């Protein structure tokens, strides 16, 4: 049976989430939004000391606890240093593709709470000026942030309160086309968070409870491998909702949900992956099963760090991962359907 997912709510959730900056380990703005969204579903958000947040749902059987994880952290940058002329050098947070960032707007979040916008560009920024503008490798040593402020020296920048280590977020540039295509940065993984809330809405409106006690976990550091190392001891299954990939080796596409059988660490739990395939078939999902090479999730980190649990992963395939990504509404629908089938154990 296919569940009727509220697509408008799903996209509205994504827009709310993606417009709030949340680079790796910077939860100052996203956590209040998650608390607000949880309250709208008559749920309460709790936190562990690491920075992960949770919504815990009673199940028909509370003797077993399962966990569904979706990470709110996104790729980002931090201030590395300020050059003598006031240009800012950066370090990356996560697997940033600098070629995809060139020309984007960014925001610097200072520790005093002030924010400043800027433009990220290559130091050889113009073909009219630099011989190597087209050929210079884009990396941490060649990319700069130009502040949208009248600054001409390191002292001018410091006077604004900008310090080394300040977080830098990137404009998501979210767009939904009339044909249902979603184009945005950070579909990885805010689309998965939106799917979790769409699942919650379906459960609430239809008076449904999960089969087992279910922890919905929103992790803070997946992009650097920090989301899943610690898991509450009562959890026996850890399922990550994360993007799928599209490419020559893969069967996944923008309208399906991909079940990941193996990532760069190891195969996921065989029996649990088989169950996900069965759920996808019963729920009428358009699905694919793939293995991913340059890819990992919180679930594989949880499996690799001595937690006593089973692990699996699935999610919406995207084009241009770690850039401005694209997927389709049907992929989010299929992902939410599989999520509902899993938590209800149909």
Question: Strands, helices and their partners?
Answer:
Blueprint: H1 7-18, H2 30-40, E1 46-47, E2 53-57, E3 61-71, E4 76-82, E5 88-93, H3 98-101, E6 105-109, E7 115-122, E8 143-147, H4 154-159, E9 167-170, E10 175-176, E11 181-184, H5 187-205, E12 212-219, E13 235-241, E14 244-245, E15 257-262, H6 270-282, E16 287-291, H7 298-304, E17 310-315, E18 317-318, E19 325-328, H8 329-344
Parallel strand pairs: 3-12, 3-13, 13-17, 14-18, 15-16
Antiparallel strand pairs: 1-2, 2-12, 4-5, 4-9, 6-7, 6-9, 7-8, 10-11, 11-19, 15-17
Can you walk me through this structure?
- The protein has about 350 residues and is an alpha/beta fold.
- It folds into two domains: about 5-75 and about 185-345, 3-Layer(aba) Sandwich (Aminopeptidase), CATH 3.40.630; about 75-170, Elongation Factor Tu (Ef-tu), domain 3.
- Helix content is about 25%, strand content about 30%.
- It has eight helices and 19 strands.
- It has helices at about 5-20, 30-40, 100, 155-160, 185-205, 270-280, 300-305, 330-345; strands at about 45, 55, 60-70, 75-80, 90-95, 105-110, 115-120, 145, 165-170, 175, 180-185, 210-220, 235-240, 245, 255-260, 285-290, 310-315, 315-320, 325-330.
- The strands form four sheets. The protein has an eight-stranded mixed β-sheet with strand order 1-2-12-3-13-17-15-16, with helices on both faces. A six-stranded antiparallel β-sheet has the order 5-4-9-6-7-8.
- A hairpin with a 5-residue loop joins β1 and β2 (about 55).
- α6 (about 270-280) packs across α8.
- The longest helix is centred in the middle third of the chain and has 19 residues, at about 185-205.
- The chain is globular and about 65 Å long.
- It starts with 6 loop residues before the first helix and ends with a helix.
- The mean pLDDT is about 95.
């Amino acid at each position: 049976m296919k569940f009727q997912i509220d697509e408008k709510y799903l996209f509205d959730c994504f827009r709310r989430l993606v417009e709030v900056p949340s680079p790796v380990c910077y939860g100052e703005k996203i956590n209040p939004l998650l608390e607000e969204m949880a309250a709208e579903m008559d749920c309460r958000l709790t936190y562990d000391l690491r920075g992960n947040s949770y919504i815990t749902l009673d199940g028909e059987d509370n003797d077993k606890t399962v966990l569904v994880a979706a990470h709110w952290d996104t790729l980002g940058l931090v201030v590395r240093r300020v050059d003598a002329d006031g240009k800012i050098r950066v370090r990356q947070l996560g697997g940033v593709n600098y070629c995809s960032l060139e020309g984007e707007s960014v925001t610097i979040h200072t520790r005093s709470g002030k924010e400043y916008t800027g433009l990220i560009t290559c130091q050889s920024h113009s073909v009219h000026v630099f011989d190597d503008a087209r050929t210079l490798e884009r990396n941490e040593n060649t990319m700069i942030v130009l502040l949208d402020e009248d600054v001409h020296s390191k002292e001018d920048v410091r006077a604004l309160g900008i310090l080394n280590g300040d977080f830098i977020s990137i404009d998501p540039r979210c767009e939904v086309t009339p044909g249902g295509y979603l184009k945005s940065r950070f579909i990885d993984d805010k689309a998965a968070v939106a799917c979790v809330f769409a699942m919650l809405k379906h459960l609430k409106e239809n008076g449904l409870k999960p089969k087992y006690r279910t922890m919905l976990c929103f992790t803070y550091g997946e992009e650097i491998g920090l989301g899943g190392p610690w898991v509450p001891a009562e959890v026996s299954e850890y399922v990550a909702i994360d993007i799928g990939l599209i490419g020559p080796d893969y069967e996944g596409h923008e309208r399906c949900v991909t079940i990941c059988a193996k990532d760069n660490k190891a195969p996921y739990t065989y029996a649990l992956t088989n169950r996900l395939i069965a759920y996808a078939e019963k729920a009428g999902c358009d699905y694919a099963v793939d293995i991913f090479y340059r890819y990992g999730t919180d679930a594989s980190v949880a499996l690799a760090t001595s937690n006593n649990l089973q692990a699996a992963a699935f999610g919406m395939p995207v084009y241009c991962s770690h850039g401005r990504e694209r997927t389709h509404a049907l992929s989010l629908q299929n992902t939410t359907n599989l999520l509902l089938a899993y938590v209800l154990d149909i």
